[in-house]
Amino acid sequence: MEFWDIYDENKKPTGRTMKRNDWCLKDGEYHLTVLGVIGRPDGTFLITKRVMTKAWAPGWWEVSGGAAQAGEESYEAVLREVKEETGLDARNAEGGYLFTYKRENPGEGDNYFVDVYRFIMDIDENDLHLQTEETDGYMFATVDEIKAFAAEGKFLHYDSIKKAFERR
């Protein structure tokens, strides 16, 4: 069984945990999630399509991510999620942490922080080993293609993470 740490509104651990997907958080309590945006030197980004069996947003495009497990640091969590979902090891990639945003869902017990990372890696299709339970395909998309998916309402979290696709 997977457990998640509970954080306060300042992103400080409370010392308490919750069971995965138990949605018991009170207002002012949060769990931690991570997103890993994987870019290539040519300016394209690895995006994956969610399997149609997902209860939430089936068939939508997204970047790798998920919840940090109890006792796991944000950076460890994003490396684990990227590895599990794509087979890629981002430990030696260029880039890293970009920013954090907070999502509050009053009365639902599901409030969370999202730490967003961007890694630039010289990868090709042979490097990928997708988690078939989670993904139903992938593409190396341009920023314009990602914006188009977002405009169709088929790209998860785009408004919250669009800065991660900007050149620096």
Beta strand %: 35-45%
The helix fraction, in percent, is 10-25%
Largest sheet, if any? 7 strands, mixed
How far from one another are the termini? 40 Å
Structural class: alpha+beta
Tally of contiguous helical segments: 3
Rg from alpha-carbon coordinates: 16 Å
Quick one: overall form?
globular
- What would the average pLDDT be, to the nearest integer? 94
Q: What labels describe this entry?
A:
168 residues; two-stranded antiparallel ribbon; alpha+beta
Give a short summary of the structure.
With 168 residues, the chain is of the alpha+beta class. 15% of the residues lie in helices and 35% in strands.
Give an overview in words.
The chain is an alpha+beta fold and about 170 residues long. The protein is about 15% helix and about 35% strand. The protein has three helices and nine strands. The strands form two sheets. Strands 3, 4, 5, 6, 7, 8 and 9 form a seven-stranded mixed β-sheet that branches.
